[in-house]
Design a protein that fits this description.
This protein is 45% helix and 15% strand. The strands form two sheets. It has a seven-stranded parallel sheet with strand order 4-3-2-1-5-6-7, with helices on both faces. The chain has a four-stranded mixed sheet with strand order 9-8-10-11, with helices on one face. The N and C termini lie far apart (56 Å).
């Protein structure tokens, strides 16, 4: 029987590529539910193309449009509806691909029902990693990473045979500004920041890649996913994006996972694990490689990465506050309200001013997110 899939955030980059995996393997997967925030037109087309019985639109102004366009389909409104639907007994795998903090609540709801989670939403573990992984363990919900780097680490660890990890080498492309001087980066526009050299991603994650906050998020994710201390996670800039990450062991041996930059590979592995599915697309040709290069990240040019390490060290609700401040700042940058380096300045300001909670509950996490987001927005008035 095919696996029933629910996709939280089906109209985004990960969601659309998940549906492409389904398209290539209709005998293995059936789509039970899809959700979107605002893109009603694409949501409607997806529901028709994949005969989806349940659709969630989070924008109330788009609800009637979606409902009228999909007779015979159960159309639901809002995050709470998504939280209820992901617990449906028919669902086998939940692809958590919503952007931002909004993905936390439905992901936790799916975990509480013991669903297999294909996790693409970074903010879920950044904001509430300890709570999420504890809940996954308590409810027997497998969490498989969809990020290319964490999928690579996961695959490398399959060859560990229980041996402890000495170090994780988390690769980063360096983004569009890797070779720019700091003075030029300070004047960068959103159009320039959105031109990622290797990956085709949504706007928010592309800006996070340009600031390297995305890599800071991934360090936090790796800490929770693989139960390792942040001090054992080493970020290395690898512009070719061929090696997606590496794991080093006590004897000095390093296992790496390589491949072309294609998010459908980690998506398909998370959905079908332990099976590897044949996929359309480019294959890695070693004879065409001109070389592989590696650099240490420049923390002066990319202070967001340093802020992420500071957030890990402080712990408690500080990573949640960092995430909220970054979310608000990136939105403001995309609206041309602040400059590029105002993003890390905003994040640092909020991290320093947040009401610190050592062991936050879920209520504390939601309260921290709201307070930090408001604090960040208030800081824009000074810019």
């Amino acid at each position: 029987m095919p696996k029933n899939i629910a996709i939280l955030g089906s109209t985004g980059s990960i969601g659309t590529q998940t549906l492409d995996v389904v398209r290539q393997h209709p005998q293995l997967f059936s789509v039970f539910m899809i959700s979107a925030g605002n893109n009603a037109d694409l949501l409607i087309r997806q529901a028709r193309a994949f005969a989806v019985p349940h659709v969630v639109i989070c924008n109330p102004q788009k609800y009637q449009q979606v409902k009228d366009a999909l007779p015979g389909v159960q159309v639901h409104l809002g995050i709470d509806a998504a939280c209820g639907l992901v617990q449906a007994p028919e669902i086998d795998v939940v692809v958590a691909a919503m952007v931002g903090f909004s993905g936390l609540k439905p992901t936790l709801s799916a975990i509480a029902s013991g669903k297999t989670i294909a996790l693409a939403n970074k903010e879920t573990l950044v904001a509430a990693g300890s709570l999420v992984m504890a809940s996954a363990a308590a409810h027997g919900a497998p969490v498989y990473p969809v990020d290319s780097e964490h999928s690579a680490i996961f695959q490398c660890l399959l060859g560990a045979q229980g041996n402890p990890v000495e170090k994780i080498h988390l690769t980063a492309s360096g983004g569009p500004f890797r070779t720019w001087p700091r003075e030029q980066i300070a004047r960068a526009t959103k159009e320039q920041a959105l031109r990622h050299p290797n990956w085709d991603m949504g706007a928010k994650i592309t800006i996070d890649s340009a600031t390297m906050m995305n890599k800071g998020f991934e360090v936090i994710e790796a800490k929770w996913l693989f139960n390792v201390e942040a001090g054992k996670i080493h970020v290395v800039v690898h512009p070719e994006s061929v090696i997606h990450s590496m794991v080093e062991f006590a004897d000095g041996a390093v296992i790496a996972q390589l491949g072309c930059p294609d998010m459908r590979l980690p998506i398909a592995l998370a959905m079908a694990y332990p099976q590897r599915l044949p996929l359309e697309g480019k294959r890695l040709s070693f004879s065409e490689l001109k070389g592989l290069s590696f650099f240490e990240p420049d923390l002066e040019k990319f202070p967001c990465l340093q802020l992420a390490f500071e957030a890990i060290d402080k712990g408690g609700n500080v990573p949640c506050a960092m995430n909220a401040a970054n979310e608000a700042a990136v939105a403001a940058f995309l609206e041309d309200r602040i400059g590029f380096y105002d993003i890390p300045e905003t994040v640092a300001h909020v991290m320093a001013g947040v009401n610190f909670v050592v062991q936050p509950s879920l209520d504390d996490i939601f309260a921290t997110h709201e307070a930090a987001y408001r604090m960040a927005q208030s800081s824009f008035k000074r810019v």
